Amino acid sequence: MAGNPARVFAALIPTVGNAYQDENDFGLTRTLQRPVHESQTSGREVQVTGSAELSVAPDRATLCISVSNSKDSVNDVTNSVSRRLEYILQTLRQHEVKEENTTVTKVIRRSDNVYYMEAEVSVVFTDFMAMQSVSNILVEKLDKTVNVSPAQFFHSAECLNKLRQQVCVMAVENARHKAKEVCGLLGQALGRPLLVKEESSREWSCQTEEANELPHPSVQQSIRRATVFVSSHVFVSFEIRPKDRTRKKH
């Protein structure tokens, strides 16, 4: 994962009245009404906005392997496809691929007096090195009746949820660090947080931008294209406390 420096705006606000001002990226200022209980209970405060950006590569990949053949008899075509299918499944077992991550479908069709059979194996990998090894072995050992499609990389729901949480926490930490620096500069101490709000978030990848540029991407290019970026922009308000200048006597 990679992070970018936060862009932070800070304002020292004496809580007089019931409004505060917020400056956006275009230099415009808007006035927002503050809750009545907030102006009554808060002392001086510092308001900051913080931003953060993180990225994460895909943690899953789907590999599709298809076997097809045609024969004059259904037994012949079934035996032909089944032998290759068993070799594929054996190769997966040797690479410790779990059965729950493997899906096998079979279709038999007849046209005139010819029988056509196709079997497809769809495998979800978390180990990309094992995936590449399986792909290389099948292409090398099996004939043209077997087709190994390029891997499709994606993110699990757990991976994306973790990324969203991490980037929001980083944005808040960036805002807190800036607020602490501002208070220190003014000879004050940073107090407890009064309000934490994620104002916006954004997710994107290079998939769309590079779709036409890389029609036959390598594995590393495919991983880079599928990498997801997430940004978060937060608003945080802290109490300002007088700095304790008393020193403990030993």
Number of domains: 2
Which blocks of ≥5 consecutive residues have pLDDT under 50?
15-42
- Annotation, overall tally of beta strands: 11
Order of helices and strands: EEEHEEHEEHEEHEHE
Describe the main β-sheet briefly: 5 strands, antiparallel
For the termini, the CA-CA separation is 47 Å
Give the overall shape: rod-shaped
Binned strand content: 35-45%
Output the number of helix runs.
Answer: 5
Protein name: Interleukin-1 receptor-associated kinase 1-binding protein 1
Subcellular location: Cytoplasm; Nucleus
Main location: cytoplasm
GO cellular component, one term: nucleus
Provide an overview of this structure.
β6 and β7 form a beta hairpin. The chain has helices at residues 36-41, 74-94, 128-141, 157-185, 219-226; strands at residues 9-13, 19-23, 29-33, 45-56, 60-71, 102-111, 114-125, 146-148, 152-154, 188-205, 228-242. The protein is 31% helix and 40% strand. The protein has five helices and eleven strands. Mean pLDDT is 85; it is low at 15-42. Strands 5, 6, 7, 8 and 9 form a five-stranded antiparallel sheet that branches. It folds into two domains: 9-57 and 156-162 and 188-242, no CATH class; 60-154, Alpha-Beta Plaits (2-Layer Sandwich), CATH 3.30.70.120. It has 250 residues and is an alpha+beta fold. It holds the Pfam family SIMPL. Its main location: cytoplasm.
